[in-house]
Design a protein that fits this description.
By secondary structure, the chain is α+β, with helices and mostly antiparallel strands. Helix content is about 30%, strand content about 25%. A four-stranded antiparallel beta sheet has the order 2-3-1-6, with helices on one face. It is found in: Nucleus.
Amino acid sequence: QEEMLGNDSRAHAQILEMVGDLQHADEKPKDNVLFVYKLNELTDEEDLGFIFSRFGKIKCCEVIKDRRTNKSLQYAFIEYETTEACERALQKMDNVVIDDRRIRVDFAQSVVEKYTWEK
């Protein structure tokens, strides 16, 4: 049964590779990137980076915005230099209130490296 599940996972990854969602079927998400969601529209990258920087050095912090309106889509990606800093931030910051909104934090599951990280 475990072998069948492994085969199914590989098949799904190969399909995602064929449709262009993955560059390589065996690609894994980075373990030093957080996905922060349920943000207040007013929370910006500078504030979010400042709040999360207490857990370690941040390589990149980006609040994702609508391309046309430039309004926040209320989620962000934060990339730390170390996995340990990322894990500390996840443990301490999940379900806290920032700008009158209770945010959620999880490890990023996306393998897409260029969300718009490098502007």
